[in-house]
Write the structure tokens for this entry.
Amino acid sequence: MKIFVGIFIIFAASTAVRAATKAWWERGNFYQIYPRSFKDSDGDGIGDINGIAEKMPYLKEIGMDGVWLSPIFKSPMVDFGYDISNYTDIHYEYGTLADVDKLIKVCKRLGIKLILDFVPNHTSNQHPWFLKSEANDPYYKDFYVWAPGTINSETGEREPPSNWNSLFRFTAWQWSEKRQEYYLHQCLIEQPDLNYRNPNVVQEMKNVLLFWLDRGIDGFRVDAIPYIFETQYENGTFPDEPVSGLCSDVNGTCYLDHIYTKDLEETYNLVYDWHDMLVNYTNQHGGDVRILMTEAYTTLEKTVDFYGNPFGRVGSQIPFNFEMINYINVNSTPADYKKEIDAWITNMPKGTDFVPNWVVGNHDQHRVVNRFGVNRGDAINMMVQMLPGIAITYYGDEIVMSDLWIPYNETVDQLALNMGPDDYWAVDRDPARTPMQWDNTTMAGFSTSKKTWLPVNPNYQKGVNVKDERLKIGSHLNVFKKLVRMRKNRKVLQDGSTVTIADNNLLIIKRETETLQLFVALNFGTEDQDFVINDYFVPLKKLYTASVVSDNLNIRQGHLIRPTDKIKIPKDAGIVIE
């Protein structure tokens, strides 16, 4: 029998009290849209801006406060938009600037903030800046990181300036016949790194932010932020990085310890400057706070530094918390979950201006259920929504979409292709980028085209789609909507303290104010587990009515839960008791 993960208590009316007013983002629910895969409005098999606008009421329905779009800018699409050839124009497959303006109006009407992906580390090699830099244009000459390389004393051959490897494998240096120098690309060859030691580059990128702020954008998600700066000696040379010992693949990014190409101190100062710029813009133009979200796959200590420094400078309001992505998988124990939750809360700066956030999926990772466990989609959503601070949802995770296996000869992700047919699956990002599953019609309601840019997961025909899940009381979607409503309307989830407990198979999260308590018990073990509230916390003073979502649970609709009641939680399931 299928287990729907979740039990809900029907809440006492006295507890449905909103917390004191917060800034719009501080307890927000954010939703990531991968534009190619969300909704195709014109039948070409590719999602677009008008399709996003069409589906914005759905995001209002499920309780989202903010939506961030993966890049929609003009691009050759070698890395599907992360290779930008014009920061202030729209890729033709997605629409036009006028379409973006219409989307902004739709978002404002619905009360949803719109956040764009900002890709500052690199441009496309088709960007006019790069073409002019390659041609040695006086103004653009130093917009990118260039070096003549070195001459091998034994062979007489010219070699790259250093041993640095790309994140996409192989050397991070590419020779330009036109300029007769190497340029740095920490990602693909087609993505040359900008030179932020040039003040003109810094100003040009601020101008990009201002362009979109003036159009009504509410903030920016900053891509690949740790790689902005690199170490360069005064004589123009670049130091070799030491071998890490983490892997034997000499072409892999894991082969080197990136002490000269990642996490340099100047990076943080740049983010602090961008934050100041957004604050000044809000002060001058009014309206709600404009925000920064930063993506940094780095250590916990370096990630939380993006919040700000001890000298009072503030940076990103939402430095993405990737602890669950980096360290949790299907084999993780409740103690592992507790460790990562506690580590973030303990290490982030103290004070009301700093808010935790929880990220379990995105466009660069396999889907949640493929990483955490096939039946745990609801339990993971339950955990994210019940923890303090900000919850971030990758499109489709609310209906528990799963990866679709795509053979190597049909793969389009360049990172995966670079790995070769034997190893591509481990890093392939295509399986988690398949089209959104809206209904049970052809192509899951994503497109009228007979062919979509990536194939649609056929499980949409088995009920994994928005339309079918809307109609089913105990569906993943309706569990998700209940969780979001609870999170928005319960003071204990807005302001309550947080305690985590790992006991056998159970991860238990307690949220508490002086007068209210809420418990989340998640069975991340391999067998059923009994849960008795009295075993963990002070007995409740009131009895509450349980609403049961799984027939495998021993609590039924209308049952009164007492402190000594033994609740049997099946493996992979979870309960929320208020």
